[in-house]
Amino acid sequence: MSLIEIKDLHKKYKENVVLDGINLSIEQGNVIGIIGPSGTGKSTLLRCLNQLEIPEKGTISINGKEINLSSRKNKKEILALRQNTGMVFQQFNLFERKTALENVEEGLIVVQKKSKEEARRIALEELKRVGMLNWANHYPRHLSGGQQQRVAIARALAMRPQLLLLDEPTSALDPEMVGEVLDVIKKIAAEGFTMLLVSHEMAFVRNVSNRVIFIDKGVVVEDGTPKQVFSNPQNERTKEFLAKMYMLEVEPEYII
Amino acid sequence: MAKLFDFEQVFTNIPELLKYLPITLELALLATFIGLVLGLLLAIVKMKQIPVLKQIAALFVSIVRGTPVLVQLYIVYFGVPMFFKYLNTKYGTHLAVAEIPGFVYAVLALGLNSSAFSSEMIRSALMSVSKGQLEAANALGMTYGQALRRIIIPEAMTVALPTIGNSLISAIKGTSLAFTCAVVEITAQGKIIGGRNYRYFEVYCSLAIIYWLVTVVIEQILKAVEKKMAIPEQVESYIEQKDEK
Hints:
The complex is a heterodimer. By secondary structure, chain A is an alpha/beta fold. Chain A has nine helices and ten strands.
């Protein structure tokens, strides 16, 4: 049985249909790269999965427990869902008035009710994992974009989510900082975290994912291994998109 | 002939007036506190667009901002006892209206006044906190209340601090009207002294000096608090303790 099952997800803004029936089953350890043209609902898909956006219709089941995503009624369910999913934002969204360490501790203390000592231990461990241990006392404003994003990844990982959602984690970064964040993502992918990664770094998606889906006009049109999707896409729209991105049959330019 | 202006009096009045400074400060601090708490509620009602409450809040703010403090003090001082008396006669209750000290009415009226002015400033401070931080808190599984308490309000506080100082200062000056509610604070005591020796002008000068000095002290305290709350420019790097296992 798959770890997470997303069924029939629909979302529209007024008349603009963004997600038009997304179905996806995610296995433990899947690193799924989500690619597709701008405005096809890749980010919206992630944001619906932890109810930062409320879809019109759709369910998610985690460990066999089904949650209706279109209702905001059941506060407990939402909180449980959010604790099972971790989110890394394009704009990092670190807490400005907290140090890197406090940023990572926050959810552990407030949401998971861990003791101060334990939260600190876990937080330091996670900061070490993303290579930010020496910066534990620094505030976000002292850090570069890439460093902030690494702290944000540590903050999400500290909660031990079943599913990590990465929403264009490198899009807001200066080019020379993209590498350090991608290194961290590659490292945690190798450690077996289950992730959904929305990214425009095609070469990286190809390199890091073990499954790639292509979304266009709110539906999944291509789903397969990176090799299948990038080298031998079946759908016309995928071919067109990849040709535009100069990715069809091109060796990855990003190598770690 | 007596002196036209008794310079010495201006200073000899001060010790007697200072006895009532605690009352002035208590009034101002309590009123500002009520103003901040109620102002926060008003701001949240407006931000979250809660139906019905939103309209009531808007009406309240409009009325309070559109009437003088002095009139508000009169209305609270005379209106609240009348309301209790009405309740007493209608429901046969025995609410002891006469035992409520004027101080309570003064704090209530000044607090309500302060809340109307604070609400907009609190709202803009809350809105200055980036929406992403709230989303991040939500994504971690924090409730709106937790996010408000732990993330949004602490950051908004630093933005609002200078204006909070302003409302504290205007509350201090507002307390000079509390005599309306039969509260003797420094201005009231000044009037009493003036009535005793007809040296009103001297005593008003003494009051001006006291108010001004108090305000200067508050400004300095706020500056120090602001400095303390600011995120430091530089911090030491964290050094991992190898022996800590």
